[in-house]
């Protein structure tokens, strides 16, 4: 690994995995209550979206890469509403998982492995059948990544460590007293956020089958007490500082790395106990935005500043927040003013009542990562 240091790996582990473990443990705080853990074995088999030349056929086989499969083992919980957030989400599933993937090109891609946290929200129950939407967020390693001599075609993965994001819809049906059968479909994304290029990323889609074994039997989640609507309605101002390192997309084969710093100010509205939205402005200083034509550092100044207006929907899960977002650059030296949209995807964990830490991926065109930002935020809160 060239530029992505050990401290960043440790930060990713802390910011992604520990919040999910904390949520899993929160169901057992206070008075000791029966826990309802489960083990799941999941298999995906699907396809690869052709978003770059490597996938489209510029590889050692000279053929498009079309197939993807993975096996995943999950340890999770589904408790019967012991905490307020469990009641808000009407008996969600949550926990950690480990995945081994296969893109049928082990020489150029290897067999990626991923460690992730997951959160499943029940969206519909029809008698014994339950539909869940599930979010998985973690990191992957064990890649055969780009190397200018040994692996020159792989412009999809430029480092041994990447983020792993998966969003899916699953349906589960009980087939025995302790065993559920699940069928679903999901979208998966691997990317390092631009900290080491080339990094065109991998985008996958796959149907799945899952067997879930409830170790202590099933929790009674159909009779969970409802949380009164509007219990936590309110609004706040959120101020976020961000930092990261990245390489320039246009010079993805060179060895120049640039720092970035950011300041975001957002007005957040709590619509329900589970959902809020934020409107705000992003200020960033990108040291590589004025790089010279050969990719080396250029003059620094006002042209390095970007300004963007953004809307961000957020899911609030106890201390954990899952964030999406779409914005437009009002000022950008490269893209122009009000000509390019951008996207944000990430997670943050509330450390104290008002201080949070998180990690986000910033992208354009919904597939090309611009940079990875580590964040610290402060909330100024007031209730209606």
What features would you describe in this structure?
With 384 residues, the protein is mainly beta. The chain has two domains: 209 residues, Beta Barrel (Porin); 149 residues, Porin (Beta Barrel), CATH 2.40.160. 9% of the residues lie in helices and 53% in strands. The chain has four helices and 16 strands. The strands form two sheets. Strands 1-2-3-4-5-6-7-8 form an eight-stranded antiparallel beta barrel. Strands 9-10-11-12-13-14-15-16 form an eight-stranded antiparallel β-barrel. Strand 12 and strand 13 form a beta hairpin. It is globular, with a radius of gyration of 21 Å. It starts with 5 loop residues before the first helix and ends with a strand. The N terminus is likely disordered.
Work out the radius of gyration: 21 Å
Instruction: Report the sheet-strand fraction.
Output: over 45%
Q: Label the CATH architecture of the largest domain.
A: Beta Barrel
Q: Output the helix-strand order.
A: HEHEHEHEEEEEEEEEEEEE
Shape descriptor? globular
How many DSSP helices?
Answer: 4
Quick one: how many beta strands?
Answer: 16
- Strand arrangement within the widest β-sheet reads 1-2-3-4-5-6-7-8
Instruction: Please tell me the total number of domains.
Output: 2
Measured distance between first and last alpha carbons: 50 Å
Briefly, what CATH class of the largest domain? Mainly Beta
Mean residue pLDDT? 89
Give the structural class.
mainly beta
Helix percentage:
under 10%
CATH topology of the largest domain: Porin
Major β-sheet profile: 8 strands, antiparallel, barrel
């Amino acid at each position: 690994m060239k530029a992505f240091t050990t401290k960043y790996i440790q930060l990713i582990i802390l910011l992604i995995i520990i919040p999910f473990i904390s949520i899993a443990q929160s169901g057992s705080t206070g008075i000791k209550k029966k826990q309802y853990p489960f083990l799941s074995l999941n298999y995906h088999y699907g396809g690869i979206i052709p978003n770059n030349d490597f996938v489209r056929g510029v590889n050692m086989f000279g053929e498009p890469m079309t197939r993807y499969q993975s096996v995943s083992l999950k340890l999770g919980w589904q408790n019967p509403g012991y905490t307020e957030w469990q009641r808000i989400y009407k008996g969600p599933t949550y926990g950690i998982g480990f995945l081994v993937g296969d893109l049928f090109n082990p020489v150029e891609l290897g067999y990626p492995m991923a460690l992730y946290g997951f959160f499943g929200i029940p969206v519909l129950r029809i008698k014994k059948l339950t539909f869940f939407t599930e979010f998985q967020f973690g990191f992957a390693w064990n890649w055969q990544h780009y190397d200018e001599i040994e692996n020159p075609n792989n412009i999809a993965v430029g480092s041994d460590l990447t983020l792993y994001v998966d969003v899916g819809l699953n349906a589960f049906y009980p087939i025995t007293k302790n065993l559920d059968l699940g069928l679903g479909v999901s979208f998966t994304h691997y990317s390092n956020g631009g900290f080491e290029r080339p990094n065109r990323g991998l985008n996958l889609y796959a149907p799945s089958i899952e067997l879930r074994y409830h170790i202590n039997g099933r929790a009674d989640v159909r009779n969970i007490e409802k949380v009164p609507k509007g219990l936590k309605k309110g609004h706040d101002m959120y101020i976020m500082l961000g930092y990261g390192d990245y390489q320039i997309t246009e010079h993805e084969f060179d060895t120049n790395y640039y720092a970035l710093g950011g300041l975001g100010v957002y007005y957040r509205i709590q619509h329900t106990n589970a959902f809020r939205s934020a409107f705000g402005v992003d200020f960033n200083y990108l040291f590589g935005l004025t790089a010279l034509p050969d990719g080396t550092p250029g003059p620094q100044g006002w042209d390095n500043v970007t300004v963007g207006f953004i809307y961000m929907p957020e899911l609030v899960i106890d201390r954990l927040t899952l964030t999406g977002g779409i914005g437009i650059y009002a000022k950008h030296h490269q893209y122009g003013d009000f000509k390019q949209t951008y996207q944000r995807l990430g997670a943050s964990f509330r450390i104290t009542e008002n201080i949070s830490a998180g990690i986000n991926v910033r992208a354009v065109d919904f597939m090309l990562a611009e940079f990875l930002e580590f964040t610290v935020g402060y909330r100024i809160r007031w209730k209606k």
